[in-house]
Amino acid sequence: MYRPHMNQLYPEVLDWVDRLETLKSADETWRSFLGFVGRFGFSYGAVADLPRKHQPVPDCLLSMTWPDSWRARYREANYVWRDPSVRGLLHTDDPYTWQEGLMFEEYDRSARRIVFEAGDFGLHGGLVVPIGGIQSGTAVVTIAGEQTSLSQRERAELHFAAIYAHARIRTLYAGARRRNEKPSLTPRERECLEWAASGKSDWEIGEILSISERTAGAHIERAKLKFGVATRVQAVVLALQSGVIQV
Amino acid sequence: MLYLIDRRNRAAFDSQIEAMHRIRHQIYVDGRGWRALARPDRREVDQFDTEAATYLLSLDGDGQVVGGVRLLPTTGPHLMRDVFSHIVTWGRVPSDDRIYEMTRLFLWRSAGGEKRPEAAAEILCATLEFALVRRLSHISVVCDTFFLPRLLENGWKVHHLGLPTPYEEGSCIAILLEVSAEQLQRSRTRRGITGPCLTFSLYPPPHAARIDHAIAA
Question: Per-residue pLDDT tens for A99-116?
């Protein structure tokens, strides 16, 4: 029997990933991740699903830790879709620093200022790790702090750790949602799920509700995530059982 | 359905193997821009497309190629050992008769133009079925790091052989995937696949036409 890594000296990041399995909640996992990236000079960050158009950003956040004052400023000024560190997600699947994020588009001064303004709140640099290919769309792990430059090796370790932090947090959230009998669906999610229960496709639901096929699909995906299930049939069954929807 | 094609039944699948090389050129050279693989005859063929390779090709009812994957024994020449050994920094490149390497996994549209959402899952299920029948312990893979979250999301037990490493088109990792009946079950249920995806047939479809022909003859 082949045994990988036998008698190998484990790099720290692999040790950390192995220990993740023992953490029982998303919160605990997030704190452990922040502890890990703290060694690289990052003390803040967030894990989020990438919001679809018209979807409220807070709905998409899985875990986050920002300076309160920065969070308030960010929300008040509605920075999210102008923030070059977020817009970079539209351009690449590879991790990029905030500094590198400025190069994806011709940003005007007000957009560039967002990145520099973060410095006033102790966020001098950041790394954005796109998490792709998951069933509900793209997600992202962002970390930020004092650190402004990263070696190739540090970047690779952070990339690796971010992928595992996201996977674990998402699994734990899904588990918690499964145990919780009635996840709260938005009215739109409920509506879409009710039509899905009558066998309508995303396209048909879009026609019925006068929204795009993609948006209808996004609502269903969101509902699936809230129920912690992989297929729309499972989501419909759970929603019917728990009385969240009626047909 | 995926058809297992190796040196034993390959002659009957000549046109499918040809189609695979042309599709791979379109996907990897035209689509993903891997210029190093470009060839004037527009067939993507590398040093690992030899007698040792096993292909699992997804064929539609008319025998058209709609997807596939290449499997190589790790005891011989293969991508991780011969091209990507520098990304294996935690231990050695796995070489064992119970480990095959999976490369060139691709999806292609059918004649009707659509890509079925479960097509990718079928390729992975067929690969696991192949691995279970051959009593493999692991499948080794060099893949884009971008692919890792999807593997984790689908419950794969992943052994890492090194950190993400940059290459021209992005970032890649070397991994070993654990082969188990449980994983096959998980991969099937996730996509509502209820039965085997892999078949060993001496001939490609359409079978009905062939039988008619045989009877007529």
Answer: 999 999 999 999 999 999
Domains of chain A: 12-178 (3.30.450.80), 182-241 (1.10.10.10)
Please list, in sequence order, all residues whose beta carbon lies within 8 angstroms of the beta carbon of residue B107, skipping any fewer than 6 positions away. B66, B67, B115, B119, B120, B123
Q: What is the structure's pLDDT at B65?
A: 95
Long-range contacts of A104-113 (CB under 8 A, 24+ apart): A110/A82, A111/A82, A111/A83, A111/A84, A112/A84
B147, B159, B164 ranked by CB distance to A156: nearest: B164
Other Cβ atoms within 10 Å of A31 Cβ, number: 14
The span from the CA of A31 to the CA of A36, in Å, is: 9
Q: What is the mean pLDDT of chain A?
A: 86
Note the pTM of the prediction, 2 decimals.
Answer: 0.78
CB neighbour list of residue B102: distance below 8 Å, 6 or more residues apart: B69, B70, B71, B127, B139, B140, B141, B177
pLDDT of A59 > 90? The answer is no
What residue spans define the domains of chain B? Answer: 2-197
> Which of B137, B149, B166 shows the shortest C-beta gap to A134?
B149
Q: Cis (ω within 30 of 0) for the bond into B73?
A: no
Asked if A130 contacts A95 with a C-beta cutoff of 8 angstroms, the reply is: yes
Helices marked H in chain A: 12-20, 26-38, 68-76, 84-87, 98-101, 109-120, 152-179, 187-197, 202-209, 213-227, 232-241
Answer positive or negative: Cα dihedral of A223, A221, B148, A90. Answer: negative
Q: Name the minimum distance, in Å, from the CA of A20 to any CA of chain B.
A: 13
The domain made up of B2-197 has a fold known as Aminopeptidase (3.40.630)
Residue A134, helix vs strand vs coil: coil
Residues sharing a CB contact under 8 Å with residue A41, sequence separation 6 or more, in sequence order:
A145, A146, A147
| Interface A:B, Cβ pairs < 8 A | 78
User: Could A230 and B190 be called an inter-chain contact, meaning their C-beta atoms sit closer than 8 Å?
Assistant: yes
